[in-house]
Amino acid sequence: MLSLHTAGESHGPALLAILEGMPAGLPLLAADVDADLARRQQGYGRGRRMKIERDAVEFLGGVRAGQTLGSPIAMRIANLDWKNWEEIMDPAPREGDPAPRKRAITRPRPGHVDLSGVLKYDRADARDMLERASARETAARTAAGAVCRRFLREFDIRIASHVIHLGGIDARRPDPLPDDLNAAADASPLRTLDAEAERSMVAAIDAAQKSGNTLGGIVEVICWGAPVGLGSHVSWDRKLDGRLAAALMSIPAVKGVEIGPGFENARKSGAEVHDEIELAAGRARTGNVRRRTNRAGGLEAGVTNGEPIVLRAAMKPISTLMRPLATVDFATGETAQAVAERSDVTAVPAMGVIAEAMTAYIVAQAMLEKFGGDSLGETKRNYDGYVAHIGKRVGGGRG
User: Fold this and answer.
1) Helix, strand or coil for residue 296?
2) Closest CA to 135 of 58, 49, 33, 223
3) CA-based torsion, 137, 140, 143, 145: positive or negative
4) Distance of alpha carbon 102 from alpha carbon 117, whole angstroms
5) What does 309-357 look like in DSSP terms, one character per residue?
6) How far apart are the first and last CA of the chain?
7) Residue 193: what pLDDT?
8) If we measure between CA atoms, which residue out of 280, 241, 262 comes closest to residue 366?
């Protein structure tokens, strides 16, 4: 079972990721991970933190001579901003503790974990929660997702994303999509494929920044090449659609997920929604059939059907506003204005990269559940045998 754990605070010394269950023999370089870490830091509307950090991975275990060993892959991403926060975030007690340290937060931000966390964990300073709840943690997830992406590449499985809505502005979705979707999206400062919408989005971000406000949006993630049969229909917790939705919903500020045009499908009849099936010779990994449409988003009853997996994630506006909202000071019991912690105006473009990482993790996990293998070679043999078998099931492989 592929598993992922992360550790570290936003302004602590570093972030850590431990990815366990990856087979031995996967070619893996720091550059494979650093490329996605850099993509996560891009996007118009990001805050000053992105000018400080230059995320790069350091392998602490599980990789030797450019290949995975089959043992847990341990990765460290240094926080360059740590030098400015060492006194505040020092793990060791300091003179004056337990009195509040500098930058203590007692005025919780609406929409953030500040108040709920203080009450749940019985703390006097909301920083004890918000440092971990910060989206900075997703750098560790992006690193792990990059390793999973490298694994999936061995099976010709690709994952990409683009922004389809930001700040009340819809972007037109070209049909067909570019062959290299990420290259096309990454060329835009907002990772959108609609140049006209991009200009309007930039103007909206500028206006929001001037007024001390924040903006949310929607990204679309697409996974090509996953074979039919990943996931399972037999138990609720094994359904791949549910697992993908949970993974994307776990990204900070994401409040909605759909598979394919899920909400639009709910307003239509079955005849308008369900994808008709036809023969398609030469598509062994799908059983030599295909859907004429892909309104199911590549998943039926919790199982991949061989069509592209299409996911959409909706991100609410970031909770930290430079023109703070009303709150209470839980230390004094008085009304107050929420703390204005350094933040982005929007992080929707970066959220798409994080959503790719989480999709890669869940799809890689499902691949290893299905095909197993202590080594990459063993996993490939199992995969090749399965594809050869299903390629003969419908009409003996004939079109």
Assistant:
1) coil
2) 49
3) negative
4) 19
5) EEEEEEEPPPS--SSPPEEEETTTTEEEEPP-----S--HHHHHHHHHH
6) 36
7) 98
8) 241
10 Å CB burial of residue 77 (0-12, 13-18, 19+) is buried
Helices marked H in 154-239 — which ranges?
Answer: 181-186, 195-210
Q: Strands 14-20, 73-78: parallel, antiparallel or unpaired by DSSP?
A: antiparallel
What are the structural domains, with CATH classification, of the chain? 3-390 (3.60.150.10)
Query: Tell me: the pLDDT tens digits for 269-312?
Result: 999 999 999 999 999 999 999 999 999 999 999 999 999 999 99
DSSP 262: H
- Structure tokens, 393: 């099931």
Residue matched to tokens 């490329």? 35
| Residue bearing tokens 């964990």 | 121
Cβ atoms within 10 A of the Cβ of 165, count?
20
Phi, psi of 298 (to 5 degrees): 85, 5
Characterise 169 by phi-psi region: left (phi > 0), alpha (psi -120 to 50), beta (else).
Answer: beta
Q: Please indicate, yes or no, whether the overall pTM of this predicted structure exceeds 0.90.
A: yes
Residue 177: closest CA among 32, 341, 12, 310? 310
In three-state secondary structure terms, 244 is: helix
Q: What sign does the CA torsion over 260, 266, 267, 272 have?
A: positive
